[in-house]
Design brief:
This protein is mostly helical and 381 residues long. Helices cover 50% and strands 2% of the residues.
């Protein structure tokens, strides 16, 4: 069974199918604390006050590092996301997601223009019913998940300053979209990193809206992820991905960090949870950090070459996630959240070393999978 802190009350409204899956896996039904409505990662006012202090100058500078593009406010809403052919996903909403992430960080640092622009952008897209016409497919829903997480996180930052009518408009737009991505396709996407991302979105919305059932799905998925891991911390559905075995392992870890950080904001410790067999977050992290140092570890599984990405040479791991991408995103942004914790285990020490040796120089670390400007959100300097 999972062990960890004592939760304040049992989950009241968890989905029956998810609970059934936990029972089948030999795990207890998850328990959860009652989230404080309006909070995802932090109370915005409290974090804003921190960022105003001299000892948080690095974090504040990261919040304001990317300037506002005057064209963002007029971005045309997308009626629907579309399926794509071959390997990829619909990226037409990437400019919207980038604008939301940058504006959310700037608003957190008390940039009034950013807050006003973000409100206008969200209300325009909500009024237009953006994404409502998206077809039901794992491809389009994956793209939708990537948009929803930063939108929810940034909306949470300005929510208290949005007038009631516009708040209702935005939440009546986002709520049904969140419910849509809680969908089963009867395949690997229901249990691999796609599902981790989905449940991180559900948990974020549950935390924001005080929905115990959605919040609890993040807790449950975290536990399921631990139960899926092998003795060496590898996740079977990610480690088989050939040259992108570490790439997709990192995808999964990012969503687990999102769940753990949302839980942390509500008094629940997921980082400290473990199975009777010793599976823990740090064990899963160790597969990534050790694999980066010793790729031969990954070669036990990568030869399966299951949907490996652009390269079929499993012997050469694609490590493009270690540096900022051309679109400004940094897939190692999740590491920013872990920097707040003392590197007391081998995988944390290895990650800390990589952070100091190169990742930190690329701040601000911004990524949809972590919900925005992670340096702005989590840095304690």
């Amino acid at each position: 069974m999972m062990t960890g802190r004592s939760f304040r009350r049992p989950l009241a409204l968890a989905a029956a199918g998810l609970l059934g899956g936990l029972v089948a896996a030999g795990l207890p039904a998850p328990a959860t604390a009652v989230p404080d409505a309006g909070t995802v990662y932090f109370d915005p006012a409290t974090r804003q006050a921190q960022l105003a202090r001299p000892d948080h100058a690095v974090a504040r500078a990261a919040c304001l590092a990317i300037p506002i593009d005057p064209d963002w406010i007029a971005l045309p809403p997308l009626a629907a996301l579309e399926e794509t052919e071959g390997y990829g996903t619909d990226n037409r909403a990437a400019p919207f997601a980038w604008a939301v992430m940058v504006l959310g960080g700037r608003a957190l640092a008390a940039d009034g223009e950013a807050a006003r622009t973000l409100k206008t952008l969200l209300t325009r897209w909500a009024a237009a019913g953006a994404f409502n016409g998206s077809v039901e497919s794992h491809d389009t829903y994956y793209a939708l998940k990537r948009i929803l997480l930063p939108t929810i996180v940034s909306y949470a930052i300005i929510r208290d300053s949005v007038d009631p009518a516009d708040r209702t408009l935005i939440e009546r737009w986002l709520g049904p979209l969140v419910q849509r991505i809680d969908h089963t396709f009867d395949g690997d996407v229901d249990v691999n990193n796609h599902r981790y991302l989905a449940d991180s979105v559900l948990m974020a919305w549950g935390a924001l809206t005080n929905d115990d059932a959605l919040y609890g799905k993040g807790i449950a998925r975290f536990d399921i992820a631990l139960s899926q891991a092998r003795d060496d911390g590898s996740l079977p559905l990610e480690a088989r991905r050939g040259a992108r075995a570490l790439w997709y392992t990192r995808h999964a870890l990012t969503s687990l960090v999102v769940m753990a950080e949302i839980a942390r904001a509500h008094g629940d410790d997921l980082y400290g949870r473990h199975t009777d067999a010793g599976r823990s977050f740090d064990l899963l992290l160790s597969f990534l950090t050790t694999g980066l140092e010793s790729p031969s570890l990954v070669n036990s599984y990568a030869p399966a070459n299951y949907v490996p990405g652009p390269s079929t040479d499993f012997r050469r791991q694609d490590l493009g996630f270690l540096t900022r991408r051309s679109n400004g995103r940094n897939y190692m942004a999740f590491a920013e959240a872990l920097q707040r914790q003392a590197p007391s285990t081998a995988p944390r020490i290895l990650l800390d070393g990589r952070f100091e040796a190169g990742i930190a120089a690329e701040r601000p670390l911004i990524d949809e999978y972590v919900g925005g400007n992670a340096t702005c959100f989590f840095a304690e300097e």
